[in-house]
Amino acid sequence: MTERRFKQVDVFTRRPFFGNPVAVVLDGAGLEPDAMQRIAGWTNLSETTFVTPAAAPGADYRVRIFTPRRELPFAGHPTIGTAHAVLEADIARPREGRLRQECGAGVLTLTVDGEGSDRRIAVEVPPAKFDSVAPAALARVRAALGLSASPGSEPRVVDVGPRWLVLELVDAAAVRALAPDFGALAEASRALGITGVTAFGRAQAADHALAVRSFAPAEAIPEDPVCGSGNAVVGALLDAAGALPGAAREYVANQGRELGRDGYVTVRVDPDTRRTWIGGHSVTCIDGAVRS
């Protein structure tokens, strides 16, 4: 058996046991995809990542990202948590405050600010692609969520690697009150060919502008505590509608409170490229090894 360095990192938080956990296997070289998938099923987290040497020119490392059921080309909190683990393990070092990560979506740029518990990492999300939703399919999703009122803006499927149906609700309280029928939502998600549903609403709070929840029961993830890609698609949708909160094209979203895992995601949309950036803090909760 081979011993491989392993970390479990809580992302979008400074506090252990909050935010969203990701499992990171730092010595992923030599593992076959089916072995990676088995390990991801064993950790039973929303995502598990595997770090290998980069193949793409200019990349600092390569990461492969697995849910309990399949591999993803990109996911937000696993990217940030993996970068945190890579920096702690001294596998890569930022150059002029930047890292370059190779993944299924290509080579992505990450920024690194600060050190230790003050370190903040952000990633430039792959370009968003937008699709409309047929009324009948939307009706199934709304029924599964228990919604009666119309959404606050036109729902769209937004694809940044994961494909999320994004719904704006009347306010943060409506988001926090959601109690989905996960079986019905899984069926509706499979019929639409989406990863899941992300709902958001505007908040009247000092520390966040939006409340967000992301549900992916078709991926064996009933609710993702603090979802990076879910927040990225909200930012992309708001930017496309000219409705970003505030005047600086940057805001903070809160997610995970309903699961006891409060987390905070900074979302920024570059005014020139129109690319969305997501970022935040991370903390390591487990540091050891796995055997495979």
**What is the CATH architecture annotation of the largest domain?**
Roll
Count of alpha/pi helices: 6
Which residues form runs of ≥5 with pLDDT under 50?
none
Q: What radius of gyration results from the CA coordinates?
A: 18 Å
> Could you name the CATH class of the largest domain?
Alpha Beta
Apparent shape: globular
Largest sheet: 18 strands, mixed
What does this structure look like?
With 292 residues, the protein is α+β, with helices and mostly antiparallel strands. The protein has two domains: 3-125 and 280-291, Diaminopimelate Epimerase, Chain A, domain 1 (Roll); 129-274, Diaminopimelate Epimerase, Chain A, domain 1 (Roll), CATH 3.10.310. 22% of the residues lie in helices and 36% in strands. The protein is built from six helices and 18 strands. It has an 18-stranded mixed beta sheet that branches. Strand 16 (263-269) and strand 17 form a beta hairpin. The longest helix is centred in the first third of the chain and has 13 residues, at 76-88. The relative contact order is 0.19. The model has no long low-confidence stretch (mean pLDDT 95).
Summarize the structure.
This protein has helices spanning about 35-45, 75-90, 135-145, 170-175, 180-190, 230-240, and strands at about 5-10, 20-25, 50, 60-65, 70, 100-105, 105-115, 120-125, 130, 155-160, 165-170, 195-200, 210-215, 220-225, 250-255, 265-270, 275-280, 280-290. By secondary structure, it is of the alpha+beta class.
